[in-house]
Design brief:
Length: 347
């Protein structure tokens, strides 16, 4: 009987050695170790043996069976490892090879410029206020002293929103002045930056553009403060401390007096020419128009419930796109909005 057990053992071990698949191993397992397998036949035959034989043969049979069960499991593991090994061979991965850097984008030049401006004004004590891109006629015009029949509305070729009564894509950031003053008592010192919309569309105008609005209201706020703040701002934003500003008289219904703000051309430094070559940017004048400004009209102050005898203030509005074009020597406005990576990646 003992020889029979050893023989079975050898048979199974040999068969396992050459087995090439799970299926073969499974068949061997059933054949030798299964309920109706060869080992169970031996177990069954134990009952006809003497007690002594039962003990020794039984123990041996159990030991060998356990040993063979382990051998079968090992074989399964070996086959599985081989299979994985084959995959690893074909899809070989070297973890020490340097990776491929994913393309990481960055913010648009105009968004970065907006941050720069917020920082410059932030250092002068201005906080940032926000308003909606879609405005009511009330805030965009009426409260700013531009009544419905006023010709100043024609200057701002407005997009009216269909089906929404008296609603426009804001033509300027000035309504934020009104919204902020309505919600806060003086003193006020804010800027507001964002998108504005007008029906213009040519080499220097696009239907969507960006403005920076500024507002400072308090006791004894004067035009001298306005000039100091705008001059400092221009010098900071163009990184040129030689820049000067000048005011020309102009008209905006929500300020009195109204001003046009110019600064010396950052390209030719106010000379109108560079080494005797006429400066194209400022058309040889040495000055660039940067925005509008003025002392807040008493009517606007009263519209929001401020005492116009006690408080004075100034406001200004600047076009950002043009300033970015000047600073980074960009020759066409459309480049900002075309999403051409060859352009965008330069900044
Ligand atoms: N909102 C004016 C414009 O868009 C600019 C401006 C702002 C003028 C504030 C005066 C004061 O043209």
């Amino acid at each position: 009987m003992k020889e029979k057990i050893e023989k079975l053992k050898k048979q199974l071990i040999d068969a396992l050695k050459t087995a090439k698949s799970d299926e073969i191993v499974r068949n061997l397992e059933v054949d030798f170790l299964g309920r109706k397998g060869k080992f169970n036949d031996i177990m069954k035959s134990l009952k006809d043996m003497s007690d002594d034989m039962k003990k020794t043969v039984g123990r041996l049979a159990n030991e060998v069976k356990t040993e063979l069960e382990v051998a079968v499991q090992k074989k399964y593991a070996q086959l599985e490892a081989e299979e994985l090994g084959q995959i690893a061979d074909t899809e070989w991965l070297d973890v020490t090879v340097p990776g491929i850097r994913p393309i990481v984008g960055h913010r648009h030049l105009i968004s970065k410029f907006i941050d720069d401006i917020e920082l410059i004004f932030g250092k002068m004590g201005f906080s940032v206020a926000d308003g909606p891109d879609i405005e009511t006629e009330h805030y965009c015009f009426n409260q700013l002293n531009i009544p419905p029949d006023h010709p100043a509305r024609d200057m701002q070729d407005t997009f009216w929103v269909k089906n929404l009564d008296k609603t426009v894509l804001r033509t300027q950031t000035s309504p934020v002045q009104v919204r902020f003053m309505e919600a806060h008592e003086p003193p006020v010192r804010i800027i507001s930056l964002g998108k504005t919309f007008r029906k213009d569309n040519d080499a220097t105008h696009s239907p969507m553009f960006h403005q920076c609005e500024g507002l400072m209201v308090g006791e004894n706020v004067s035009m001298a403060n306005l000039k100091a703040i705008l001059t400092h701002f221009m010098q900071q934003v163009f990184e040129d401390s030689s820049i000067k500003t000048r005011f020309r008289i102009s008209f905006f219904p929500f300020v009195e007096p109204g001003l046009e703000v110019d600064c010396t051309c950052p390209i030719c430094h106010g000379e109108g020419k560079i080494e005797n070559v006429p400066c194209k940017l400022c058309k040889q004048t040495g000055w660039l128009e940067i925005g509008g400004a003025g002392m807040v009209h008493p009517k606007v102050l009263e519209n929001v419930g401020y005492d116009s005898k006690k408080y004075t203030g100034f406001a200004f509005g600047m076009g950002l796109d043009r300033m970015v074009m000047i600073k980074y020597r960009i020759n066409h406005l459309r480049l900002f909005f075309e999403n051409d990576l060859r352009f965008i990646e330069q900044f």
